[in-house]
Amino acid sequence: MYSLQIEHQVRDFSMWRQAFDSDPLDRAGSGVRSFRIYRPVGDDYVMIELDFETQEAAVMFLARLEEEVWSSGGAAAPALVGTPETRIVEIVENTTVAW
Known about the structure:
alpha+beta, Antibiotic biosynthesis monooxygenase
């Protein structure tokens, strides 16, 4: 399993969330199996992890984000500030510890 990690500053979290929820790239149809959204307390910043079965699916989705969403001049990503930082990582272990 592979995860596309994305970090970026946002102008307004509610505005960002509305754009994210509009799902312009059809996450499920693009191979996203699950995702997590992190938001540092007291900071206008968002971190996202999108999980894929294959590295190729993660690479293709990232390319589409760059070409179709982030380069749109704000139309598809109105809350985005600056250029997102991204990386694709292989998930080596995912363990839930019961308390």
